[in-house]
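DM between two lab members

TW: hey, do you still have the Nitroreductase family protein entry open?
JB: yeah, one sec
JB: this one, 210 aa:
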Amino acid sequence: MLDFIIRRHSIRKFKDENIPDKDLIEIIKAATLAPSGKNSQNWHFIVIKNRNKLNEIADIVKNKELKLSQYIKDGIEKNKFISSIDNHIFFKDAPITVFVYAGPYPDNRKKILKNAKVAKEEIEEYINVEPRIQNIGAAMENLLLAAANLGYGGCWMTGPMLAKKEIEEYIGFHKDGYSLVCMAPLGVPSENEIISSTRKPIEEILTIID
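TW: and the structure you got?
JB:
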């Protein structure tokens, strides 16, 4: 019953095989069927297939992170940060990468709380709920589940967002209120046997209150 969920894994190595447009469209359609607060559907998907463009975006990410590493004083932490860069640029080897933008969310509760002179701490607690981004999270999960169900693999990535502004400038997509929040390389997994990462036991993460 839950096979379509079990088939989803975080894939970082891909075969040199294209994803047909008909499958890609089905995957994006699945993403748009995700629930969103107030049915706002505040998402937009940019798909890049061009390998040269993906390599250039990877260079943007790498250069930004190397620049940021100069501000890390602790040598061990600096080396750890630099060694993680490869984990943020493997999308360049995927046949396609989906860049996901989040748009405005029609929520006036923050304004109401301010006008009601509610304590700043309470307003911050509400802001931390981030319904705008939760909508994107639901869409991303649908996208990855649909890809896995069609025989593809992908990986939900936020690491490259350290170069978010630079990537946005390179892509050149403009839509009022929209900004890049995450991305997902997609393709046919190169490994035949994919092992799931260990999950926390249900007893540790579940509380039932009668």
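TW: got it. The mean pLDDT is 92. The chain has nine helices and four strands.
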